[in-house]
């Protein structure tokens, strides 16, 4: 058996170390670029976050409070409206400046900037997943041509967004298992407390800082013009809804705005 070439082994080891150094240098550069492009800032609402333990009951027979999923009706749609009504936020100008986005931002007449907190976008996505499960009720079965593709693109975007949100927040609450008399497999004990924000306290910031973007003169595209005129949506807004996968639902959304204020990009 030939003896190992010590010189070759050293060269291989050096090559591995060099490759590792290149990878680490690349990752360091990526982290630096990310930090340069996306400054780490504390959102204005963070001062209103109060964390508390809470048991989440989400199994049949234990769900209490407003209903958001299941067979759709006026009550369910009203619950979504109430939850999402304050979605659109007026972002303080100084925060946009610190973020370096004041030049690209959509400035509102009162001087703040149009924004939506991710939690409301995620809820908005859950609402559209619920609607996708009941296409006949919401007219989604009437979509035609490119509207169908855009609808599924929008829905897939929402599902990926929710997946990333769940992994980003990384709830490490442990669900222990136990043997149930009527089940062959172990069953989860859902009584483990999660660390949750106090939603009512959070809303103490959200509601006063929410903005009605459906008023005339609030959203005016610098190239295409106003999205609202005389209290009604313009043809431009209808067009944007149809091309964003809402199809004929665009008419319902915009003619029934009191129940559809969660209009987001």
Automatic annotation (TrEMBL):
InterPro entries assigned: UstYa-like
GO biological processes: mycotoxin biosynthetic process
Domain of life: Eukaryota
UniProt similarity note: Belongs to the ustYa family.
Protein name: Peptidase family M28 family
